[in-house]
Each structure stands twice: as C-alpha cells, then as structure tokens.
Write a structure and sequence with these properties.
Protein name: Zn(2)-C6 fungal-type domain-containing protein
Subcellular location: Nucleus
Organism: Colletotrichum musicola
Number of strands: 0
Region (Disordered): 31-69
Shape: elongated
Oligomer: single chain
GO molecular function: DNA-binding transcription factor activity, RNA polymerase II-specific; transcription cis-regulatory region binding; zinc ion binding
Strand content: under 5%
Number of helices: 26
Radius of gyration: 39 Å
Order of helices and strands: HHHHHHHHHHHHHHHHHHHHHHHHHH
Length: 604
Amino acid sequence: MFDRGRVLAAIWGLASIAQYSPVPICRYEKTPPSDFNSRNRIQPSPRVESLTTHRAQGQLSPPRNKRPNHVRKAMQDAFFASNSCRTCRQKRVKCDRRLPDCVRCCSLKLRCQGYERPKKLVWTNSVASRGKLMGMTTLDIGETPKPILLTGAAWQPRKIDSSAGPLAETGPSPGRLPLSLTDTYLQDLTPECRKYIRYFVLDLSRESVVYDQPSKNPFLALVPLMSQSKALSHAMMSISAFHYTHRLVISNLQPHSRNDSVAAARSPEPWHLSNNHSWQMNQPKFRDSLRKALSHKQKALELLKSEVSDDPAKNSDATVAAVVLFICMDVVEFGSHGWDHHLRGAAEMVRSRRLSRNSEELETAPWLKYFDTACTTFGILGATLAPTCDPLNPRANSLNPSFLEVLQHSEKQTWVGCPAELLYLISAVNSFRVDPATIPDQQSAVLDLCKRLHNFSPLAWAENFADQQYHESRSHLAHAYKAAVEVYAAHVIGPLLDHHYLSASHILEILQPAILHLLAISQEDFHIKSLVWPAFVLGAEAQNSELRDFIRTVFHRIWLSSCCYNAKNAVEVLDKIWAQDLDKSSGESWLNYVWKLEDSWLFV
C-alpha cells in the first residue's frame, strides 16, 4: 500500500525545487509526428531562456572565478617576454619566452643570452677597407647627400673635471661606449682603452682637419683599420692620452675670464716654460693619463718595428697609417724628436705601394691619397726649418704645375690650412735651398716665383668657399700665410737677385699688418690651429717688443685651443732667436740660426 501523504509531499517538493533552483529543469514535450529529427528533443525551460538572454545582453556580472582581460595581460607580461630569446633565435627554434630565463635553454644547459636585441655600434661615414664597397663611404652607398654647409657656432674646447675620473666628460654627448661592443676591432679592448678611442673619434678627429665634415674626415676611417695593426691601435690611444692630458692641464690652470688670456701671456712667469711633462708627472691629476700615453707610445713603437720588418713589401694601409699618426703625435706631444724619420719612412712606404698598384686600384684607395697629401704637406713645411733641405717628394724639386693638384687636398684633409698655391710656392723656394745651380734658367725661375707670389689674392681664395660666414677668418689666414711666405722667400732667394719686390723695406711694411691678421682670429675660431707656421715665421722677423708680445698672445691662444705642445716649444725657440738679436755684432739671419740648431722642428 502506498502512503498517499508521502507521495503528495514528494510531488510538492519537486515543484518547489523547479521554481526556485537556478539549475534548469527540462521537460519533455510532444512533437509533431511529421518532424522526425526533432523527436525526443529536450527543450529548455523559460527560466533558462531568460538567463541566457540576460547574459548575452551583458546585464549579469561575470563569474567570480574569471579575471578581467587587463589583469590577465599584466600577469602574462610579468612571466613572459614579448619576443624570443637570442639563443633560440640564433638556433631557429621555438622559445617559451619565460622570464627571467628561457626554460628551454635552462633544460638544455645552454646560456640564455636574454631577450633584448643588441645595439650594434656602426661607424657612420667611414670608408670600407675590403669587399665590393672598398673605397666607398656609407654616404656613397646610400642616397647621395646634399652638400654640407659648415653652419652653426664654432666649436669651443670643453673644460674637463679631473675629479670625475679619466675621460668622464669627453665627446659631445653624455653617453658612454657600451661595455659589450660587437665590432671585432674593439671587443678585446679594456674599458679605459675604449674611452681613449672614443676621445680620438669624437674630439681628436675634429682637431686633425680645419673644417670638420665626417664624410670627408680621414681620421674617422682609422678605427676600422685597428684590426689590421696593433701598432695603429696603441698609437691612437697614445696620441689621445697626450692630447687629453694637455687639455686637462689647460682646464685646471686657464683663467676664468676670457679677457685674462692676454694678461696671462704677458705674466712674469712664462706660460710656455711652466707645466711641462716633468711637472705633469709629479701631479696626481695628470700623472695617470701621461703614463698611459707614454706606455702606449712605447708599445706602438715596438709593434710597428715588428710589423714593418716582417714583410716591408706588403705593408698594409693600417701600418702606413700608424707611421703617419706618429708624425701627428710628435706635433701633439713635443714638436720635435723624430718626426722627420717617421716622415721619410711613410713617404717611402707610400711610394712603394703606389708602384705596386695599377691605376684602377689607386682610384679605389683613398688612403693612399691622404698619405701622399699628408706626407707632402708636412715635408714641405718641415723642410723650411730643417738644417738640411732634402725634399721628401721628388716632385717638389722643380716648378711642376701638376704638383699643385696634390696640394689642394691638404686644405681639407689636414689642419695646416695653408692655401695650396702658397704651399706650392714654399715647395719651390725649398728647391732653391737644395742646389740653386741645378735649376735651369735660375733668374727666370726666381722671377716667375716672385710674380706668382705677388699675384696671389688672399681675398679671392677666402671667398672661394661655400659657407660665407668663414670668409673673414679665411681672409685673415691667407693674408698671414702670404706674408710669412714672403718673409721666408726673402731669406732664401733674396741673395740670388739684385732687384725684386721682396726687399727689406717691403718686409718691414707688411710685417705689422700680417701680425694684426693673426690677432684677428679669436681663440674660439677653429682657424686658430692653422696659424703655427706663419706665426713662427712672422714672430722671428719681428724686431720690437710690442709685435713680439702679440706673437706670444697668438701662440697662447693656439695652445689653449689646440692643446698641441709644439705651440709652447715655438715660443721657446722664438725667445732664443730674440735673445740672439740683442747682439747686433753677429748680423746673422734668424733663419740661419734656426738651421744651426740641433733639433729639427715641425711647427704646423
């Protein structure tokens, strides 16, 4: 017997559950016999249909166990990288991108190189030394750039804080070289050596030319050649350390006011005799960098000797570049002591390399053109003050018109800044020192030289330049060089003729205006570094104390701007010349006195 009460209670309980429970309770409904596929279909209750509609319309809140999208993305970024690690990319396999290290690399016991892409150090506007693009710059490879005009304010030497550590404030940008460089010629260098290379690229390369155009600066192309010659690497670091030491001394000792430069030049204590290398070696601020300079120079000399003696016939461009850099180092370090030996060696190496190459290879070897230009320029100006004039370039022995083309490159590729026409005339004057009797028709040759010198127009040369803001400085520079060439020519070829325009009265007339042209170029003007040779020649010819004080001021400006030690030595030699002039009984020319000195000076 069924208990009727219990059955009714169970029925009412099921009904209440179906009414209030969120779980859908489905019922079977009769289907039409014609729809066979829909037979026995389970139909949802109206309660379930209502819940589904509301969820689709977004009226119900999301379930508690599901996080928002931005939270899930933040958690994913915290545990996974956005790209594959470098190790998996190199092996071309799929990376799990887990942080901090890839799990795949750890499981295979591989060193995970991280997820950041390395920034390669690319030397822009440099010359390719091998391959299809040898001899081309990065500007030549891409689109042809527009002509660069030298606009903007003139570069001023920066003050260096010695308390911040060596080379802490070098270069125009505060950034430093990364510790892991990918370039093969820099990856084995210590951080200190890299700082000196950085100083060479950012600072010293600009001092090596008059107008700094990175696409045409030959010193910027030295860095890729470091892998071919260790002597070149140590030479670059040595000259950078010397230049940095001099700049550090100047920054710590120069007056705070710009107007004090003239007063410092006239102070009782001669500025050119103080703060020499012996004094610098005893100062803690300058001792370390000076020792580095001397150490790298000694290593460079030893390595250069071995590289040259191994196979002299196959000396690379890097070896020749190291020899040429030693000439520049002598100018920065002292101004004497071996530049002529390096110059002879470089000239011989360039001559042998030119003979071993055909004409097509010479066109794709821009370094040979620079070597030829630098050796010729330094040889011409160095021969003017050398005891014996032995021109290193055979083309300088005669008035060769084709020789002028080589000298035109010196206006842009060196810091000398002498007009090519005047440099050519200095070369012609030097040829009279060798053996005047060997020159055919000596009288006509001298007259032709004087005529070309007289017709040279400094203003026309100055205006033959794209940027007009430098026309005035170029005019002062050309006037000073022309007067200095006239003074030098008067001492050499003056006794050869009885009547010429280079008389004593003419030299006395042009001397004071020429020195005023030197003073017109300020310390902040980068043309100041080109005044060493004309300032020395004009200063040696000066007779009164006022003009000599002006010359001291000019050399003091050159020293503060270029940091080259030969500016101090030039004033020291001038003091000896001026002291000899006090003895009127000798009657000897100052040029003959310089030729009798033991040292061979390169005042450029």
